[in-house]
Amino acid sequence: MRTPVSTYRLQIRPSFTLQDAAEVTGYLRSLGADWVYVSPILTAEEGSDHGYDVTDPSTVDPARGGPEGLAALSQAAREQGLGILADIVPNHMGVASPGQNAWWWDLLKEGRASKYAEAFDVDWDFGGGKIRIPILGSDDDLDQLTIVDGELHYYDHRLPLAEGTYSDGESPRDVHARQHYELVGWRRADAELNYRRFFAVNTLAGVRVEIPWVFDESHEEIVRWFREGLVDGLRIDHPDGLADPEGYLTRLREATGGAYLLVEKILEPGEALPDTFDCEGTTGYDALADVDRLFVDPAAEEYLDSLDARLRDAEAPADYEAMIHGTKRRIADGILRSEILRLARLVPEAAQLSPEMAADAIAEVICCFPIYRTYLPYGQEILLESINRAAESREDLKAVLEDLTPYLLDTGGELARRFQQTSGMVMAKGVEDTAFFRYTRLGTLTEVGADPTEFALSTQDFHERMARRHAELPLSMTTLSTHDTKRSEDARARISVISEAVPEWELFLGTVQELAPIPDGPLAALVWQSIVGAWPADRSRLQSYALKAAREAGNSTNWTDPNQEFERHLAAAVDAAFDAPEVAAAIANFVAELEPYGTSNSLSAKLIQLTMPGVPDVYQGTEFRDGSLTDPDNRRPVDFQARIAALADVDKGAKPAYTEEAAKLLVVSRALRLRRDRPELFGGYRAVDVHGEAAAHVVAFDRGSDAPGAVAVGTRLPKRLAADGGWRGTAIELATNVRDELTGATYSAGAVPVATLLGQYPVALLVPTD
Q1: Residues 576, 516: contact at Cβ < 8 Å?
Q2: pTM for this prediction
Q3: What is the tens place of the pLDDT at every residue in 153-171?
């Protein structure tokens, strides 16, 4: 098996095709990347910028470069010595435009008689033998249907007509009644949908890849990539939605000839990837959380909690456990109610439970889940613990839960299987997409894959986790930014400084809230933190982010019934950042206060991520400072020419100041090149001794195995370090003579003053010279 030393993620889309990717392979090689990592490239919904809505799994998307584009990228990568990691989407397909998806079109036309009735996950009996399509403005809109060229049209929606169901002169409403589908009002999807989706996205229909022919047909093109040597490894999107993730991975490994595989799996604290999963690891959210917390000051927790309580007009700060139980229940009873009701319909009659009672109990168990899902029998104890917690929180459900337990544990039963597919949906929507926009004491903490109740991480705890990572998951990905992160690595690096500047933060927040109030205290904290983290940013980016954050939080407005008055206040506050001189000045002053320390955090976090155990990924463009916020902001175009020019300058000997953008490029290129070109320096992991008054501000580790290897040194909590008087004689113990890859300076073995070592940059990358 070929495995990557590092990867560089590219977002492939119509405006940046596979051919465009081929053009930058020389730059990626020069930067030090080992593999090119591409977003989904199979044919997707026309106009899709992300590609996770695949409509035709048999072809590489012509809009993304087509098969010739993949061939061009593969050839260019091979010429540069690069591998290719491709993102694939086995859980769902895009069905927004039935005419673009031959599988879905055939299903709608033929109904249960369609070959693809087995491929999609439809509860036909619940729909009276029809699949419900929630596209109408309301059920009354059936009068807006028309028949055009043998198709049923609803505004821009085109749908097929079954053979023999239409003759001239008939009303479209009558023709519609004869179809294998039923068009319904979009609001009915929450409780009445009868097909599995990706989370609550009606236009992404679940696919049953556990069925052999469905796997074969949906993966034929992917398997070709490996047969013809075009691709070297795969990133599997959302495996938790599959009926049998373990079986899927086993089959995929075999189909690809034993290729490198990663799963997009969020591990909660203390949770391990099942050892039955035939893959190399995860896409790295767990690593992101560990790195971030090194740069959060633990002393700030009490103060930020106190501020959070005041913003909520409460006696105490938000109770996260109670919050996520509530947000998950909101999702289970709301936008994912149809999934819960489908589970309830699977409860055997022998249980003698009404559908309403069964649904209530099932939702309560899911809302008590501490992780995304189980993989029975793996995780059985967690399921039992969740059932017990549900019984404790809802005494009225205790007897019901006792009756349900055997069925939820039955690994051969459909209820248990679907329950496992559903729990992760509720977790993702209730926690990542709701609670993370409500629990706002510090934006760094509410990132995908993180537990925001873990406030900070000591260097000792970090070293213990990294040693375990090296021993257990050496080929798992590490990352700091992805297409899914709520805020980019550099935005979080700056926001983390707030933990070292709580009085200044409280003063700033009070000022802007007085001048441009957002009438929702916790949301105001999140929005102003995000503005500060992303600054400088243009108006449209910040307006889009603020609106999305407010609607996701769902406290003062939401997606389905927007509060226009609140949203007017929110938009006015964001506008004030550009139009009100006092607000603009407050932002500029506060950003200036945070900026040098945020830059220090950024460089340190990046060096640590690139040199720690695992396979480091660089998300496109983040070799420069990137203040992106949640998608689609983080998929903005990347100016590769600027990066190519800056790298050429650095390679000619330029030594940018640590506050300059090119300093991050220097760190990224030197770390990536060293990992690729000197793998013998990265065979182990141990903490490096640091002693002195400021030792707690240093994170340093040696990646050597039997002999000294590459040593990474970073600065943590830099603002408090400066306030306390700097390094004050603190020294690091070097096991051998070294050279700093960033500055070229050399140091002899023994105690080296940290003030000397980190005199030019807040980081050092040391290589043995003996």
Answers
A1: yes
A2: 0.96
A3: 999 999 999 999 998 889 9
